Amino acid sequence: MLGFEVLSPDDRWPAVAAKAREFVRAGSKAVWAIDPAGPAGPVARVYTRQGMRMVGSNGILRGSRVLPGFRLPLADLMKG
Fold first, then answer.
1. Can you give the residue ranges of every domain in the chain?
2. CB neighbourhood size of 73 (10 A)
3. Is the pTM value of this prediction over 0.70?
4. Nearest to residue 44, comparing CAs of 78, 19, 79?
5. Cβ–Cβ under 8 Å, residues 32 and 5
6. In terms of CB atoms within 10 Å, which end of the chain has fewer, N or C?
7. At CA 58, angle to CA 75 and CA 66, rounded to 5?
8. How confident is the model over 18-49, as pLDDT tens digits?
9. Helix H or strand E segment including 46
10. d(Cα 57, Cα 54) in Å, to the nearest integer?
């Protein structure tokens, strides 16, 4: 299972991170938490059992074990 959350202006990273870690503990293989309005542009945090990694506005979200071969540039996701 893959979790996906897009932060609203009222969301705060500590609460989002806690929720993402809870989903991973409950069995999700990964959780993508995306802040479309980060200070340096869109940013995603990818949470897995191995920890968390950042994906910057020019980075690529990868499906890893959940969606093998899936690749989505974060910039493409932010295009409306």
1. 2-78
2. 14
3. yes
4. 78
5. yes
6. C
7. 75
8. 999 999 999 999 999 999 988 888 999 999 99
9. strand 43-48
10. 10
